Fold:
Amino acid sequence: MRHEFLASHRQLPHHHAEHRIVQWHVFRDVIEADDYADHIHLSSGQAVVGGFDSDSIGTLWWVGVEVDDLERWGNRSAVNKHAQ
Structure:
């Protein structure tokens, strides 16, 4: 695993929760999550984040983009989540 954050238990973001994660993808395979993280292009004030969590089926990994200033980034209703 190239991205250490995938080894950390971190709850999957929720669309309406208070956080600064504006985009995230969910994976059932850590290798797919690790590969996906390699291809994220960031702008100033953004960072790649993620971790693992679980649901009733089993373990899942997520990779997302966290912004340093949500107000500057834009509208919270534009937050986007994708599951694979």
